[in-house]
Every structure is written in C-alpha cells, then in structure tokens.
Amino acid sequence: MRMLYEQQARLEMEHWQYRMRKRPSWMERTTKRVQDRINKLIPEKVHQAITVTIKQMVRGVLFGATYTAPTQQEFTSLFEVEEAVRKRVNIYRHTAAAEGGITGAGGILLGLADFPILLAIKLKLLFDIASFYGFDIKNFKERLFILHVFQLAFSSQQHRQKVFEQIVNWDQRAAQLPDDPESFDWLRFQQEYRDHIDLAKMAQLVPVIGAAVGVVVNYRLINKLGETAMNAYRMRKLAH
C-alpha cells in the first residue's frame, strides 16, 4: 500500500509540475488584464492599506517567530503524513469560509478586514504543513521556502513559472542562499499577491452578495493552497 500511494502521489506531483511550468493561457492573460483594470477602479487608499498589511505580515514571517508549529508527530509513511495534512487543510478551509462569510456580510469595511485575517490563516496553514512533512520552520531557509510555496499558489502564471524553477532542487539551492531576510524580494511578493486577488474576491466587498462570495472564495483559496503545498513538499520528500 505504501508503494502504491507513493506512486499515486508522484503522478499527481508530476501533473502539478507540468501545470506550474506551462505558459499562461489566453484566458489567464485576459483575466490578468481585467484584474488590472478593476484594480484601477479601486481607491488608492484601499490598495495602500492592503499593501502595508501584506508587507508587515511578510516581514514578520521573515524576522520573527510569529508562528509556532503544531505538536511534532511521528509518521511512518507518506500516506500518514498526507492524511494529517488533509485533515488540517479541511479545518482551515472551514475556518476561512466562516471568516469570509462574516466579513463579507459587513460590506466594504468588514470586507477589508478579511485580507489580513485570511493572509494570517494561509501562512499559519503553511507552517503547519511544513511541520507535518518534518521540516524545521524555525530555520530561516524553511521560512523562505514557505513564502515560495505561497507565491506558487497566489501569483500570475508568468511569475509562478519563475518561482517554481527556484524551488527545484531547493535543498541544494538553499545552502547557497544568504541568511539575510532582506535578500527576499518581499515587494514583488506582496505585489503579486495583491494583483492575484481575483474578481470574485473583490466582489466580497459588495454588500448583500459579499457574505456568499466570502464563504465560497475563501474555501477555494485554502483548498488551492493546500494542494500547492502538498505537491511542493512532495518534490523534496520523494527526491530522497
């Protein structure tokens, strides 16, 4: 069973790798252009608030011990690891969906509060997943990897291709990276994340429909992040 599961996981990972490397589709390019136009209609103060929030939280991840890992568990197989990961993702999916519904029901003011809250939920989930796979999140290089995984989930396809190539053979590459938090391009990180907030997410700011949008979109975003993280860590675990 263990070998069969690992074979299945490897096939899923290879399909995911193909998606990470492929060129942006016509629809993706069109969506990006529409998002750019929508962003221009949003007040600059809103953009500034989102940018500052993302910047502060990202720097907190790089410099501080903001997040703690769950109690370390002993797993005997990849199957056990990923069962635990799936259960954790499911918990965060429902948490994020409930949070999106509450903030979405409040219109613009509460809708804006969703951005930092959801960002914190996403980062905490990634820290938990890294720990389940057996990586030390107190290590600065592992925190950098977490931020790379985040970008893979929430960036344009053009940027996603570049980030993916950076995590290939990560363990060898990380040994050559400086132990300097300032070396991370957090400005590009927050710009890509902000620009990746899709049309549905912006609809969460609209009264009446915001609650329903918040539930669905947050659920899907956490699901996407969980899938991305699992495959990114599979690349490292199955390489050994």
Task: Quickly describe the structure.
By secondary structure, this protein is mostly helical.
Describe the model.
There is one protein chain. The radius of gyration is 18 Å and the shape is globular. It is 76% helix and 0% strand. The protein has one domain (2-237). It has helices at residues 2-21, 26-41, 44-63, 78-104, 107-132, 140-153, 157-167, 170-174, 186-196, 199-203, 210-237. The two termini are 19 Å apart. Helix 5 (107-132) runs parallel beside helix 11. The protein contains 11 helices and no strands. The protein has 240 residues and is mainly α. This is EcsC family protein. InterPro entries: EcsC. Pfam families: EcsC. It comes from Chitinophaga horti.
Estimated structural class: mainly alpha
Low-confidence blocks of residues: none
Shape assignment: globular
Q: State the helical fraction.
A: over 70%
Q: Report the β-strand fraction as a percent range.
A: under 5%
- Major β-sheet annotation: none
The counted number of beta strands is 0
SSE series: HHHHHHHHHHH
Q: Which features does this protein show?
A:
240 residues, mainly alpha, globular, single chain, 76% helix
